[in-house]
Amino acid sequence: MVITEVDRTLQDYDRDGYTIFRNVIGRDLIAEASEHVAWLQAKHPDRLGEDLATELVAGDPFWVRLVSDERLLDIAELFVGPDIALFASHYISKPPFSGMPVLWHQDGAYWPLEPMRVVTLWLAVDESRPENGCVRVIPGSHQEDLHALRQRDDIDNVLGSESAVTVDESKAVDLVLSPGDVEVHHPNILHASNANTSPRRRCGLTIRYIPTSTRITSEQQPFVSALLLRGAPGVNVYQPFPRYVDGEHMRFADAEKWT
């Protein structure tokens, strides 16, 4: 039997709870994503770079263009099947010298999904390394149940909480990524990132894809960032795709296709 690169990647994911795809998105689109972060921060000066999140997505043509990119959907399909919806998306852009940490947590502990069938694609917009606060994971921890959460207001951090469990950080793996790389992780894996104390920004875009058979159980229905991206609609109600309006939205390479 011939073992393909995709087979190896899926084996890595099953064993470790994460895997990495290199050079998925090209330089031009990544440059637009970087510009998009700056544009969002100028438009929403009350928001930190770590807080460019879900409620902004469905009304933003470039954001929807990015999360619906066929290369990303092809990766998502490997994990959730051919009928794909967006559940949520979030830029975490840690500014130089002051970017906040993300404490150890499991994504699934925060999400109103039934069943918890979902995959996160983490698209690197910047170089992501230990010195500027790259994602860290505990391989194999995706096999644990979801832990309870506890509030943490004694330290500035992105989520304001963490998993109520002791983490052996000697087992942590730093995920070193270049712009355009995509890291994929399981909703149960314990992961975190340190503060950015370097002179370089660290920005990544999280994209949470679900099969359309997974129900969004939030009382916000239709969920604010739920979008049907590929295949049959399944069990949820979705937001319409936004139309590009010159002067209202950030201009991007194929904006005319979104008018």
TrEMBL record:
Keyword list, A-Z: Dioxygenase, Iron, Metal-binding, Oxidoreductase
GO MF annotations in UniProt: 2-oxoglutarate-dependent dioxygenase activity; iron ion binding
Superkingdom of origin: Bacteria
Organism from which the protein derives: Nonomuraea turkmeniaca
Gene3D superfamilies attached to this UniProt entry: q2cbj1_9rhob like domain
Fe2OG dioxygenase domain boundaries: 81-211
Protein family (similarity comment): Belongs to the iron/ascorbate-dependent oxidoreductase family.
Protein name according to UniProt: Phytanoyl-CoA dioxygenase family protein
Membrane recorded as keyword: no
InterPro entries, sorted: Oxoglu/Fe-dep_dioxygenase_dom, Phytyl_CoA_dOase-like
Keyword Oxidoreductase: yes
